# Entry
Amino acid sequence: MIVPVEPLKSILQLEQKRHYDNGAVIGGLDGFVSRWAAQVSQRRVGPRFLARLKKLELTRPNYASWDVEKRRKWVERLLAWLAVAEDEAQQSATVSSKAPPLSRPTKPVVWRAIPDAGLNAPIASVKGVASGVGGKLSRLGVRTVRDMLYFFPRRHIDYSNRRFIADLKEGEEQTVVATVWQASSEFLGGRRGTVAVVGDETGNMRVVWFNQPYLAERLRTNSRIAISGRITVYRGIKQFESPEWEFIGDADEDLLHTGRLVPVYPLTQGLFPKQMRRLAKTVVDGWADRVVDFMPDAIRERCHLAGLSWAIRQAHFPDSHETLGGARRRLAFDELFLFQMGVLGRKREWQESQPGSPLSVDRGLVDRLVASLPFSLTKAQAKALDEILTDIQKPKAMSRLLQGEVGSGKTVVAVVVLIVAVANGCQGAFMAPTEILAEQHFNSVCQFLKMLGGREEESEASMRRYHGVLDRPVVVARLVGALSARTKKALHQQVEDGEVGITIGTHAIIQKDVSFRKLGLVVVDEQHRFGVEQRSALRQKGFNPHVLAMTATPIPRTMALTLYGDLDLSVIDELPPGRQRVRTRWVYPEERPKAYDFVRRQVAEGRQAFIICPLIEESEAVQARAAVAEYERLSGEVFPQLRLGLLHGRMSAEDKESVMAQFRAGDLDILVSTAVVEVGIDVPNATVMLVEGADRFGLSQLHQFRGRVGRGQYASYCLLLAENPSEEGRERLRLIERVHNGFLLAEEDLKMRGPGEFFGTRQSGLADFRMAKLSDVALLELARTEAMSLWKDMRLIKSPEYQPLMAELARTWPGVAEWS
Ligand code: ADP
Ligand code: MG
# Structure
C-alpha cells in the first residue's frame, strides 16, 4: 500500500503557517482534501486503510465556515493521521525494495500515480544496509533514501570502450582490464605517489597515481583490476595518469561483458565500490519511481526535459551515453531552476517586505567630490557611480554587485557613495574580508577625504574627523580586532550615538555587538555574495540598508546573473589610463637563480617584491608552517642582505598590520606571504610578484596576485615558478603569460576547473550543484527565463497543480516565506 502523503502534508503545514486562514490552496482547503481522499481511495489501498480514511470524515467538511480553533483541530488531526500513513508506507517500501534482475524492463512512469512516500526513510532502514554502513554513508551526506537517489556517481566507467593495451590510443578515454605485475610508492614531482606496471595478453603499461602512495600496498601482484581514464605518453611509453580503477573478481566478468556504463561513486574510508553500487542499485530500483516529478508539465514540455524518475535512474545506471546526457540535462535544469527560484524569491522578500530608505543625491555635491580627486574617473567608473546613485534614491533597498578588474578603482566609487550617505545624515559600513584589508580601506578612505579637501581634526588611532568635505563633519572609524577592549567599547558607543559616519571593519561589524543609529548603506568588498544571514541579521536590527557588494573576481555575465540573480550588476571594464601591463613570465626551475637575481636588481633600484609561498593544502596551519620555513630559507640563504617580512593567516591581527605597515612604508624589501595577500593590497612601489608553485593556483587567483603589482608608475613583473606542472598546470601558465584580461581568464578558468574549485570553498551554495555546469550557458539561460516567468505569475505557483513544485522549493529553500 502506497499513499501519496507529501503534497497534502505540505499544504496542511502551509495552512498552519498561515494561521488557518484557508489560504493555502485556492478554492479552499476542504476541496483539496476531498479530491485527495477520492484519488487515494481509487488506489490499491487495503480495506483497513479505507475504513480509517472514512473515519476522518473528509467528504463534507465546511472548512470555510469554521472558526480558527476548529480549523486547527481538524488540520492537526489530519497531520497526525498522515504521519501514521507515512510510517506504514515506509515499512512497505522497505519490504518491497528487493532489487529486480538487471534485465527486467522498467515500467513507464506517470507522475500523479507515483507517491513520494518512503523517501525520507533513513538509509539504514533499507534492507541490506548493514548497521555500520549507515554511519559511513552519512559522512558522505547520505542519510535518507532520497539522499541516496540524489547521490550521483562521480563518473561512469565505460566498459563498452574496453581495449587491449596494445590498442590504446593517446588522449582517448578508455578502459582496460589488466593484471598488476608490480606496484610501489615513489616520488612523483616531489611528492609521494604510486607507480604500477600492469599487463594483459597484448602488452604491459605504466599507471601512475599522484598523491596516493597508499595504493601501492593495496595493489598486490597478480590482482586483476579495471582501469579507466585518459592515456598519456611518458617518455615514449603509454600510461594512465591517476585513472579510476577497481578490483575485478571472477564474478565480475559478467559486468565487463555487458558492456555498459558502470557508475563510480565517491567513497569514504571503509566503503567499497561494489558495495556502493549494489546499494545504489537497490535504492534506485526500489524508489526512483516513487519520486514525484515536481516540475510542472508546461515547463517540462517547453524545455524538453525528461521525467524525473527516469532521469534519476539513468543518472545512476544509464543505458547509453545519450540517455545519460538526457538525464544530466534534466537534473541540471532542476538545480539551476530551483536555485534561481530561490534567489528571485529572496530578492522579492528583501525588496518588498520592508521598504528601504531612499537617500537624496545632491548632484552638485557629487560633482564637486569627483572634481576634487587628483584624477578623473574612467568612463566605466562614472557609469557605475551613476547606476548606484540612481539606485539609492529609490525606496527599494539597493542590491548591487560592482564587478571590476583588479585595480580598476572600485574603492573610490564606494567612498563617494558613502559620503553621499553621510550627507543624508545616515551611517555607512564598509566591510572587508580580512583585517589587513579593513586597515587598508581605513587608510584609503582617510586619504580620499583629504583629497576632497577634508581637514583632519581628531587623530586617534581608531577614529578621524574631517571638516570641510560636507557641511557636517565626516567621522570615520576603524573597528578591528586589534583595538583594546576599552577603545572598542567607546567606539561602539559612538557608532550607536550616530557620531561615527563611516565604520570600517570586517564583516563582524554588522553581526556582533555593534548597533548603528541609522545605517543607510553597506559596502562589502571582495566578497562574492552578501549572504542571507547577514541581511537578516541587519533586518532584525531594524535596518534594510542599500547594499553595494564589490568583487574583483570577474564572472561572466550570464553566470553572475544566475548566481546573483538577487543582485543588479555594474561592471567596471576599464583600467585607469597609464596602467602598466604587468610583464608575466613562466620561469623554469633551472632559471630560479636568475629570478632571484632579478628581484635583487629591482630592490637595488629601490623597488619592492612579493614572494608567494606554494599552496600546500587548505589548512591554514600547514600553510603557515610552510611559509615560516620558506621565509627562513629566503632570508637566510637567498637574500641575507635584504630586509624580509612574513605574512600568513595564523599571525595575530597586530602582527599582520605591523608587517603590512612596514612594507607599505618601504621598510621591507620583500614580503614573503601565503595567499592571504591575494586581494586588495595596494603598494605602488612594489614591482615584482614572484609566485612559487604557480601551477597549483587557479588562473583567477594568479591574476589577483599579479594585480598586486603594476599599481604605480614603475614597470612591473610577475614571475611564475613551477617545479613539475601537470599538463593542465602548463596550460594555465601559458594562458596567464599571454592573457591579461581578467574576464577572459575567469572564463577559461571556469572551463578548466569547473565552478566548485573556481569559487573555492567560499561559495557554499554551489555545493548543491551536482549536475549543473555553470559553463552550460544555454541551460543556465533557459532555467533563468523559466524561473522569471513563473515568478511573474504568483497565482500560477499557488495553484494546486504547482503544489509539488512548492513542496520541492520549500525543501530546497526553507528560508523563503513565499512558499514555506
Ligand atoms: P580595486 O578596484 O582593485 O579595488 P582600487 O580601488 O584599489 O582598485 O584602485 C587602485 C588604485 O587606482 C588606487 O590607488 C586608486 O587611487 C587609483 N585610481 C582609482 N581610480 C582611478 C582613476 N580614475 N585614475 C587614476 N587612478 C585611479
Ligand atoms: Mg579593492
